[in-house]
Amino acid sequence: MIEPSEQTPLAGGNMNDVVRMSDEVRRTAGPWTPNVHALLDALAHAGIDEVPRVFGLTDDGRERLSFLPGDVAHYPLPEWLWREDILADAGRLLRRIHDASTDLAGMTDGWQLPAREPVEVVCHNDFAPYNLVFEHQRLVGVIDFDTASPGPRLWDLAYLAYRLVPYVEDAEAPAEILAAESGRREILMSAYGSDATADELWLTIAARLDALAVHSRARASIRPELADHAAMYDRDAARLRARARA
Question: What is the pLDDT of residue 92?
Fold first, then answer.
């Protein structure tokens, strides 16, 4: 048996208590956990090896997931993460996850976040570098499905674009990456297989940031830095809406 002293706290988890025990991750479960486990099981059945496997629950009700080896991309992001092949790989992985989730998309109750119309797939809802796992500078996994819920494909793709094209104010990406925004947007959209226009993408990002700002402000009493995050989301949303109207 692994003793409590052998538990390694892990960062992230949407303010959840997450620890690693050998090759297993344990975290606080919630009313949404059965749906999340059903999603992860569906992805495993579809042959998607880049997501955690479900081991069930502990005797005290904590969820048990497989640990994905590798490094999560925390901020400030390393320069290699801005490579175009990583951008394309992220788009392709998101598409595979979406395609494998469609049978569960009609199950609109029991998720941590509400379903969003038009329901097309089960969205990860936080598909971003800080939830992506890399080995030898290659994308090998995605974690933290706690806030997954049904919604439109573009809702997830827009947030990935926000973080990885990028459009986020605090990206601190190299100048040449920021200057290549149009081409990088096309790489991501093509890799996913989306025909959404630039305006549709920007307006969806803005709507996504509106929701994220509300979510962040509601939790700022627990994590005060979220108030600053919410203000940044407001600024980014206004900038992208203005760009779409231009």
Answer: 98
User: 189 near 155, Cβ under 8 Å?
Assistant: no
Phi, psi angles (nearest 5°) of residue 79: -60, -35
pLDDT at 2: 39
Q: Which residues pair with 105 in a beta bridge?
A: none
CA atoms within 13 A on the CB side of 81: 24
- The DSSP letter of residue 5 is G
Which residues lie closer than 8 Å to 147 by C-beta, 6 or more apart? 14, 112, 113, 124, 125, 126
Banded model confidence at residue 17, pLDDT cuts 50, 70, 90: confident
Q: What is the CA radius of gyration of the chain?
A: 18
Give the closest residue to 152 by CA, choosing from 118, 106, 127, 126: 118
Please choose, from the candidates 143, 121, 145, the residue with its C-alpha nearest in 3D space to the C-alpha of residue 134.
143
Provide the CB-side half-sphere exposure for 151 (13 A, CA): 21
Two structure tokens written together for 177: 């990456």
Tokens of 143: 């974690």
What pLDDT score does 13 carry? 44
Task: Give the whole-angstrom CA distance, residue 91 versus residue 107.
Answer: 24
